[in-house]
């Protein structure tokens, strides 16, 4: 099975309109070609710098433009971050993701960021960071520290992007992804559905990722968690659009799996409101990574005990233990 980066929008759109059983069969076939079908990677996400972000992302409670009552905090102490990572590893997490509410990191913060990466990686866990836009020098410092993945989501389709965020452009996102690739760091890039977008936007979102010169090694698919005080939270909280149709969400996961066969497809935010049956369908559609724990940055998550019970019901197991993936070869 070949990995394509030349998908047309019509081809992606055709996946979304397949009979559901056919779509699931195709997604399962692709998934089994490239991944262990009964294994799911367990990841933990920690907010290492919360609130006060100058960006105006309409979904985000950490935006300085939102009125959520969330107080801006300073960057966490390195030792506190490493203690949280050790707890996550003890609970079974294989990947530790660190997020900071910045438009871009300041150079003065990079020494502490580097120590966090080195410390977590020294525990034998995969490392991921999301810090906003990066300069080339910053990306190279993270690569030298051994960072495995850098997360920088495109959020939605190029056409819908301006309806969600106005303080940066879609191209700004792509520029940072290029810096990450050039430094030799694996890319984690996905987005959010259920923001009032159309199916055409969901097609455009998957198409934009599937036609990157190299697919993201990790593709998080989030369902919007409407937060009161955010633009989208106030707009959608009391409407049927606040929660994407379950089958449409599964279709989005399946389309991501089919078009990006080698990628880890992560079932991310929004799981707290999903039934076990919907999550089971997402795993059948090719999702093979989740965030564990009770919290994702500032919103709730299902918790370790609920996940363990679900895994037992479905016969799933944590991804077989391996050494953290080394950074990918730098772009030529």
How confident is the prediction overall: mean pLDDT? 88
Low-pLDDT windows of residues? 295-300, 322-332
Overall morphology: globular
Number of helices: 12
Global structural class? alpha/beta
Question: Which sequence of SSEs, written as H and E, runs from N to C?
Answer: HHEHEHEHEHHEEHEHHEHEEEHE
N-C termini distance: 25 Å
The main pleated sheet reads as:
10 strands, parallel
Using only C-alpha atoms, the radius of gyration works out to: 18 Å
Helical amount: 25-40%
Q: What proportion strand? A: 15-25%
| Strands, count | 12
What does this structure look like?
The structure is a single chain. With 332 residues, this protein is of the alpha/beta class. The protein has 12 helices and 12 strands. Strands 1, 2, 3, 4, 5, 6, 7, 8, 9 and 12 form a 10-stranded parallel beta sheet that branches. The longest helix is centred in the N-terminal third of the chain and has 15 residues, at 20-34.
Summarize the structure.
It contains twelve helices and twelve strands.
Topology overview:
Elements: H1 9-16, H2 20-34, E1 39-49, H3 78-90, E2 95-100, H4 110-122, E3 126-130, H5 136-145, E4 149-151, H6 161-164, H7 170-183, E5 186-188, E6 191-193, H8 199-210, E7 218-223, H9 231-236, H10 246-259, E8 264-267, H11 276-284, E9 289-291, E10 295-296, E11 299-300, H12 304-314, E12 317-318
Parallel strand pairs: 1-2, 1-9, 1-12, 2-3, 3-4, 4-5, 6-7, 7-8, 8-9
Antiparallel strand pairs: 10-11
Helix pairs in contact: 1-8, 2-10, 3-4, 4-5, 5-7, 8-10
